[in-house]
Amino acid sequence: MGEENKARKPHVLIFPYPGQGHINPMLQFAKRLVSKGVKVTLVTTIFLSKSLFSDPSAASIDLRTISDGFDEGGYGQAGSADVYVPTFRSVGSTSLTSLIKKLVDTGYPIHALVYDGFLPWALDVAKQFGIPSAVFFTQSCAVNSVYYHVSRGLLQLPLPGPNVYLPGLPSLQVSELPSLVCLYGSYPAWFDVVVDQFSNVDGADWMFFNIFYELEKEVVHWMSKFWKVMTIGPTIPSVYLDRRLGNDKDYGMNLFKPNTGACMSWLNGKPKGSVIYASFGSFALLEAEQMAELAWALKGSNYYFLWVVRETEEAKLPNNFIEETSEKGLVVTWSPQLEVLSHESIGCFLTHCGFNSVLEALSLGVPMLAMPQWTDQGTNAKYVEDVWGIGIRARPDEKGIVRRTVIEQCIKELLIEGEKGKEITKNAIKWKNLAKRAVDEGGSSDKNMDEFVANLLSDLRVSVFE
Ligand code: UDP
């Protein structure tokens, strides 16, 4: 391909919200676009670019930064979503505008923007330049349908209960809706973020979901009546799915430093299916009481366990827990989660049900023990147990705490494989195969990405094969 044509490759700007659970899927999506002949520039914040433990340039993705107004400390510096969200909106809009101008000036104009649903103001910026845009949702279609209904006043809050019926969704108990909706008023700034995703969405040209069609068929059909919906997931590194992206085995941007050597050498010695992997993702905070119940459940179960306790959560561990359980357990501050989940020693994943974690376990066929904490996690847990049949929910008591006996019971069900455990294992294999098929050549997600690229190319009237 000559220099002239190189410059005429479609150029897509990808703009995730600066959190691990948003960067991972959008960066992975970016890699797939690159493999289809698209030039991709990923936008992150100045603060995050200083604190990353890896570099996406290995995947031929350019990294550019903008300011969120907190260049020295990001979200932590802001101190709360009430401060962070509006500041990012105003400073970010100006900063994104400058970046787009700069890219034009340096000969790399943008042909499309793919922005995170959490950052709807990015669509307004793109409109000023006449750039076609796609909103990217990192949460499930079901969860976003709930937010859509709230945003349009079709679900009036607070909900009277006991059940909610929405098109394409199973009947949901009010407590199974995203916490920002069922516990109306709990985190007003985050509530505004998820509902505002739909404030200007009619102006977006495409709507991407990090799912695959088979996973949420009914609600995808329903949403497709209003928007150009494209399912493009699961955005899991290719080695774990179709293996078409070479040695693509991790996302490529860590906000925390993984204890890779310690995790993998510890797992290497363990028998097949014998280890519980426990993690609550990058953001959730557990109450000290919950942490203690979980700690004693892991100890009491007498299985091996690998538990991710982020540095900021470590003080909540019971005294001497690490020493007392050192023969059976390993506690780390961050893990290489995909490598861990794909290790044959893992028997189940005790998870907060962040949507990426759910998709990762689903794609790797690992049964889940669901302990949702907040936002979309309760709805994801409902789907894990009742819709996809790939896990069980450990239910909290009236104080909202999941007790040790309940956790231990769930562990036994999954690891000894009671009747439900057997069914879960069977379903896990089914979904793992469907996930792989969706992203493989000609699969539902792959076709949607090809269609997106073909659209960009027809606008440009060039071919990547010229
Ligand atoms: N993750 C990881 N190591 C860990 C814990 C999590 O690499 O020790 C990754 C995980 O693979 C996932 C992301 O961090 O891709 C967390 O996203 P998720 O949506 O599950 O949860 P969130 O952090 O957004 O609550």
From TrEMBL:
PROSITE patterns according to UniProt: UDPGT
InterPro entries in the record: UDP_glucos_trans, UDP_glycos_trans_CS
One example GO MF annotation: quercetin 3-O-glucosyltransferase activity
BP term (GO), one: monocarboxylic acid metabolic process
Pfam families for the chain: UDPGT (PF00201)
EC nos: 2.4.1.-
This protein's UniProt keywords: Glycosyltransferase, Transferase
Residue ranges of coiled coil: none
Family: Belongs to the UDP-glycosyltransferase family.
Name listed for the protein in its UniProt record: Glycosyltransferase
Gene name of the encoded protein: LOC111313113
